[in-house]
Design brief:
The chain has 554 residues and is α/β, with parallel strands linked by helices. 42% of the residues lie in helices and 15% in strands. The protein has three domains: 14-197, 3-Layer(aba) Sandwich (Rossmann fold), CATH 3.40.50; 239-418, Rossmann fold, CATH 3.40.50.300; 424-553, no CATH class. It has helices spanning 28-41, 58-68, 99-107, 124-130, 146-160, 170-185, 239-247, 264-277, 292-295, 298-312, 319-322, 330-342, 364-380, 385-388, 424-433, 441-450, 454-465, 471-477, 486-498, 503-510, 520-528, 544-553; strands at residues 14-20, 48-53, 72-76, 78-79, 85-88, 94-97, 115-119, 136-140, 193-197, 253-257, 281-286, 350-355, 390-396, 415-418, 516-517, 532-535, 538-541. α1 packs parallel to α5, α5 runs antiparallel to α6 (170-185) and α20 packs across α22.
């Protein structure tokens, strides 16, 4: 895989989803062209990514927003006097969709949608209803001529693409630019578009805590690993520098352990990027996505490994020709292939990152041989010049629960790295980076609720910084279906229901005021999910959020 060093910090790409409904002689194609032209002329046009869905039906809107996850939703179509938007049903008949129905829809997508623009007549009622959940909503308070609607859209996206000064409200600036564009075309219609601003509406404004505003474009919705150029990645007590120094050493082996969503993948991505700066080759493999058919068969799995690494490095795949099952075992074949067809073909060290290696832990028929082979590679690097070029990084959620020979396991060699929860100083740092008052007393209550869990903290900071919820409301609703953690908690509950043997143990843990002793397999699985923390031979809930939620639903 040809890797490049991380680029300098950049503003997040803004995705615009354009939805068009029943034409009814509206000049929708022209409006879309004008929007695209406005963005092409914008001084920061590289910030925008336009996606278009035409002739949408009610269910199409729901699916499109969920699939695209846009920052801006632009609706072009026809509105009725009661505020409903006119769409077509599956039979091609007119179907009015009321404002409250759309408000319910956008309530589910407030985490990433920042602005909704309804370029449709009488759409102010819909914009008003949606502004309960979305920061910026624009609607029309009466009928608007096609020419004026197109002019407004053109002016709005012109304004959105202009450079902004400091903390200037970019959506309000863009809205005003749209009004100017209408005025230049038809003065009589410049008062028709109305901006509903959730932050400024008196009945919606949150008084506590006081938020230091930052540009909306800089905020990142926590999803997956933290981008390399993100200002929201926190380094942890020199862990990164230790890893960077270690990866430069011949035959290096780094073992990174932490429960799910604690930042393992974000760290290994940075180790890989650091290696690129040193002109190393790098391959990142996620074992979580391997087919069960492959991962449960040692020979298939090792063939996959060799083929995948060759592919990522743009090397010829010679696995079928090189494999010799007549005289060599699977481990011997894999080792020979790596030495001759991979390491010997490179002019620089190779960083091989294996993420989620605990996916192998349940399969003893693969586990022992594979990890024994990795350990042998590491040992070969102490004497062999070729094997010194291999730098291994393993990431996993918890320890191997099947005993391995100490001399054949990579888990008692190399440099161990365990990712801990954020401490008080790091939490305050994260809050400051999100423009949240780090001295607010409620920040301590948030730490009590979610501990120092990186993902849970970032999700809270994001929603607070975006003005979607106050500290107080977040804490009160955290463990409920109405809270910001609902999707996360529900996904954990679904996993537990698919593994019913874990339910009784977790129920005991969350209902006890003291640590609970469980069997080793239950501890392994619950800890890898990040649900519990271990204290000697006992476990307790990882945080109050999990205790409150699972005490209620189990």
């Amino acid at each position: 895989m040809n890797l490049s060093a991380p680029t300098k910090q950049s503003i997040q790409l803004q995705k615009i989803l354009i939805l068009t409904a029943i034409p009814h002689s509206l000049r929708l194609d022209k409006e879309i062209r004008e929007i695209e032209d406005a963005i092409r002329r914008a001084t920061r046009r590289n910030l925008f990514d336009i996606r278009t869905r035409t002739a949408v039906r009610p269910q199409d809107i729901r699916r499109a927003i969920a699939e695209e996850k846009p920052h801006i939703v632009h609706f072009c179509g026809h509105g009725l006097q009661d505020g409903s938007l006119l769409l077509e049903d599956d039979g091609g008949n007119n179907k009015p969709v009321p404002p409250q129905g759309l408000a319910t829809l956008f309530k589910q997508h407030g985490d990433y949608v920042s602005c909704v623009l309804f370029n449709a007549c009488h759409s102010i009622k819909t914009a008003d209803a949606i502004s309960e959940h979305i920061n910026y909503c624009i609607g029309m308070n009466q009928e608007i001529a096609d020419k004026a609607a197109i002019a407004f859209a053109q002016g709005f996206y012109d304004g959105l693409g202009y450079e902004s000064e400091g903390n200037q409200d970019v959506f309000t600036k863009a809205f005003n630019e749209g009004l100017v564009a209408i005025a230049l075309e038809d003065v009589s219609q410049e008062s028709i578009p109305v901006l509903k601003n959730k932050v400024l509406e008196p009945h919606l404004q949150k008084k506590e805590p006081q938020i230091n505003p930052i540009l909306i474009q800089l905020l990142e919705y926590p999803n997956g690993s933290v981008p390399l150029d993100s200002p929201f990645y926190l380094e942890r007590d020199e862990i990164e520098s230790i890893c960077y120094q270690t990866i430069e050493k011949p035959a290096a082996l780094i073992r990174i352990k932490a429960p799910n969503l604690m930042g393992k993948t974000s760290l290994v991505r940075r180790i890989l990027a650091e290696g690129v700066k040193q002109k190393y080759q790098g391959v990142y493999l996620d074992f979580g996505g391997i087919n069960k058919e492959v991962i449960t068969n040692l020979d298939k799995f090792l063939r996959w490994l060799c083929s995948k690494v060759s592919l990522e490095l743009d090397l010829d795949n010679q696995v079928d020709e090189a494999w010799n099952n007549s005289f060599l075992g699977s481990n011997d074949n894999c080792t020979a292939y790596f030495r001759k067809h991979i390491l010997k073909q490179l002019n620089s060290p190779l960083i091989l990152i294996l993420d989620e290696v605990d996916r192998l832990f349940p399969y003893s028929e693969v586990l022992e041989d594979f990890f024994g082979m990795l350990r042998s590679w590491h040992e070969k690097g102490k004497t062999s010049e070729i094997w010194k070029q291999l730098r291994l990084v393993l990431a996993h959620s918890t320890e191997v629960y099947i005993p391995l020979d100490l001399n054949q396991s990579p888990f008692n060699a190399g440099i161990p790295v365990e990712l801990k929860e954020f401490n008080q100083q790091q939490i305050e740092n994260l809050a400051t980076r999100h423009g949240v008052n780090s001295q607010d007393n409620l920040l301590a209550e948030l730490r009590t609720m979610v501990g120092g869990h990186p993902y849970l903290l970032r999700l809270a900071m994001y929603n607070i910084a975006m003005g979607k919820i106050s500290f107080q409301d977040l804490l009160e609703s955290a463990a409920t279906e109405a809270g910001i953690y609902n999707n996360h908690l529900r996904s954990l509950l679904e996993i537990l229901h698919s593994a019913p043997d874990l339910l009784p143990g977790l129920k005991r843990v969350v209902n006890s005021s003291m640590g609970v002793e469980l069997d080793s397999m239950q501890i392994y699985k619950l800890h890898s999910l990040g649900l519990v923390q271990r204290e000697n031979n006992h476990v307790t809930p990882r945080c109050q959020l999990y205790r409150d939620y699972f005490r209620r639903v189990l």
